[in-house]
Specification:
Length: 343
C-alpha cells in the first residue's frame, strides 16, 4: 500500500461511485470510508466492494472527533489524503429543516478539519458545489472568482464549509483544495433528486412533480466524470486552489423530464405542476476552463450517452429502489409533495 485515502460520505451517491472507481483505478491505495449511514447512506451501494481488503468501512459521524480519529487510525502509518464528501445534500430537506445541514456541513467540516490538521494529513480535497455561487440570469457562467451568494439553507451551509476550508488553508497553511461541481446524475443517486425521482415515478406511472414553470436550468454532469475530476484534483491540483467542475450541458427541468418520459415510453400527462420551491435558484452553469486547462480533465460522457445508461441502471435495480422508497421516504415524500404529488 502506497497511501491511504480517508473518504467521508462514501456510502452516498457520489461517494459510492468514487469508491468503485478508486478500487479499480488505484488498487494499491487503502481506502478508509467514514460514513454515518444517514437516510442517504446505503451499504448496498458498496456491495461490489465487499471483501476487498483495500476498502475499510468505518461507521461514524464527522461531527464526532472520536469517530473521525477512529477513521484516521484505520489509515495506519500510511501518508493520508482526505476526500471530504459527507454532507446533508438535498435542498428541499434543508427548506423543511436547516439544522441538520448546519450540524453536518458546517460543524462536521470544522471537526474534520481540526482532526486532520492534528494528524498532519498530506492533502484535503473538499467537495463543494456550484450552488455556493447562487443563481445566474439567462447569460454567463460561474467562474472560480464569482462571489459566493448561496440562497438555500443547503447551499449556505455548503458555503460555510467551503469558507472554513479556505480559512484553514489561509490561517494554518492546511493543504486544502476545493472543488465546486454542477448537478450530478448516475447510479446510486437517492430517489429524492430530480433525475432518479422522475425515472422511479414514471416507471410506476406515478405523477411527476414539476416545480413552478419547470424552466429552471441545471448543468448536468455524469457522476463518473465528477469522480475522475476529483481524482485529478487530488493528484495534480495545486494546494489552496478552487476548481470548478461542469459538463457544459445545460437543460431546463422540463426538457429533462420529457427525455425521461420518452425513453420510458410514458405519456407527458404524468407531469403535474406543483408549488414552486421557495427561493428556487433559476439557473446554474459552470465555466470549467480552469480544470480543463490546468489539470487536463474533460468530461468523457455526453448526456445523450449517459442519461440512457442511467435510466437503464435504475430499471435494473427495482429492489434497491423499492427498499429506499418505503418507510421514512414515504413520510418525506408526503411532507414535500402532499397528496397532489402522489399519482
Ligand atoms: P448524498 O446525500 O447521496 O450522500 C451523502 C453521504 O454522506 C451519505 O452516505 C450520508 O450517510 C453521509 N453523511 C451525512 N452526514 C454525515 C455525517 N455527519 N458524518 C458522516 N457521513 C455523513 O450526497 P451526494 O449527492 O453523494 O453528494 C456528495 C457531496 O458532493 C456533498 O458534499 C454534496 O454537497 C456534493 N455535491 C453534490 C452534487 C450532486 O449533484 N449530487 C453536486 C456537487 C456537489
Ligand atoms: P434537485 O435534483 O433537487 O437538485 P438541485 O436543487 O440541488 O439543483 O433539483 C434539480 C431541479 O429540479 C431543481 O430546479 C428543482 C427541480 N425539481 C422539480 O421540479 N421537481 C422535483 O420533484 C424535484 C426533486 C426537483
Amino acid at each position: 500500500m502506497q497511501r491511504a485515502i480517508l473518504l467521508t460520505g462514501g456510502a452516498g451517491f457520489i461517494g459510492s461511485n468514487f469508491v468503485h472507481m478508486l478500487l479499480e483505478q488505484r488498487p494499491d491505495w487503502r481506502l478508509v470510508n467514514l460514513d454515518a449511514l444517514t437516510y442517504a447512506g446505503n451499504l448496498q451501494n458498496l456491495a461490489a466492494a465487499e471483501g476487498n481488503p483495500a476498502h475499510v468501512f468505518v461507521k461514524g459521524s464527522i461531527t464526532s472527533a472520536e469517530e473521525v480519529d477512529r477513521a484516521l487510525d484505520a489509515c495506519g502509518d500510511l501518508p493520508i489524503s482526505v476526500v471530504h464528501m459527507a454532507a446533508e445534500s438535498h435542498v428541499d430537506r434543508s427548506i423543511q429543516s436547516g439544522l441538520p445541514f448546519v450540524d453536518t456541513n458546517v460543524l462536521g467540516t470544522q471537526v474534520l478539519l481540526d482532526r486532520c490538521r492534528a494528524r498532519g494529513v498530506e492533502r484535503f480535497v473538499h467537495v463543494s458545489t456550484d450552488e455556493v455561487y447562487g443563481s445566474l440570469g439567462p447569460e454567463g457562467f460561474f467562474t472560480e472568482e464569482t462571489p459566493l451568494a448561496p440562497n438555500s439553507p443547503y447551499s449556505a451551509s455548503k458555503a460555510g464549509s467551503d469558507l472554513l476550508v479556505r480559512a484553514a488553508h489561509h490561517t494554518h497553511g492546511f493543504p486544502a483544495l476545493i472543488t465546486r461541481c454542477s448537478n450530478n446524475y448516475g447510479p446510486w443517486q437517492f430517489p429524492e433528486k430530480l433525475i432518479p425521482l422522475m425515472i422511479a415515478n414514471a416507471s410506476e406511472d406515478k405523477q411527476l412533480p414539476i416545480y413552478g414553470d419547470g424552466m429552471q436550468v441545471r448543468d448536468w454532469l455524469y457522476v463518473q466524470d465528477h469522480c475522475e475530476a476529483i481524482l485529478a484534483v487530488l493528484e495534480r491540483g495545486e494546494v489552496g486552489e478552487v476548481y470548478n467542475i461542469g459538463g457544459h450541458n445545460e437543460y431546463p427541468n422540463l426538457a429533462i423530464v420529457r427525455m425521461i418520459l420518452e425513453a420510458l415510453g410514458k405519456p407527458e400527462s404524468l407531469m403535474v405542476t406543483v408549488a414552486d420551491r421557495p427561493g428556487h435558484d433559476r439557473r446554474y452553469a459552470i465555466d470549467a476552463g480552469k480544470i480543463e486547462r490546468e489539470l487536463g480533465w474533460t468530461p468523457r460522457f455526453t448526456f445523450e450517452q449517459a442519461l440512457p445508461m442511467t435510466i437503464a441502471w435504475y430499471q435494473s435495480q427495482p429492489e434497491w429502489l423499492q427498499g429506499l422508497r418505503s418507510g421514512a421516504y414515504r413520510e418525506y415524500y408526503e411532507r414535500q409533495y402532499g397528496p397532489q404529488g402522489q399519482g
